[in-house]
Amino acid sequence: MSSEKLKIGEESKPRFEFRTFGQNFDIQWKRMARLSAQVPEDVWERQSDEIYIISRTNDVNNTKIRNGKMDIKTFVQTVEGLEQWNPLMKGSFPMKTDLIVNEVFPAFQVEMPGFDKDQYTLDEFLRIIRIHPDLAAVRVNKLRYGYMVNGTICEYAIVLINGARVVTMSSESTEIADIIKTVEQTGLAGMENINYLQAIKRVIGMIDKPLANETF
Question: For residue 16, what is the enclosing H or E element?
Fold first, then answer.
């Protein structure tokens, strides 16, 4: 069976991903850019402001909010060191309390707070998050550069996590062998696979662990 041809920005069957975070990947970024096939102009450079909801007790559900919309993905499995994540729920603000109680807060795996309204705006929801002892609303700005290497969707991004600058590189595909080949060819082999949840927790001090590359 032939592998699925991925297109940046389009949905596909669940993908596997390698991602790592550090302070400097200039050499690896240059190799990725040189190895890349041509990609659409709209993914050459993209910038976004997002809010990640981080929980002390949860490492399997990734929750982010962008443009007033919530997206939760859940961890499925690790195969050959690569992670697979699937969509869990999507929602918009103002959000019905039933959805918050039945789908959003269970994903955080923390004690449920009290709710006294039928729906909540984004600001009202974030106020609840900020006073919860096990949750944090973390502002994340991303400047992303898109590539395509060995048929895998690749990225180099400059990321500000509550203002702290880090960089990240990734390769994702439905084909594990293509990701492994890309990781080796770009010089990322041996780097720790770190997803956004783990990177943010390390930067804000929720986890006492360094990033994969801390060369300044």
Answer: strand 16-22
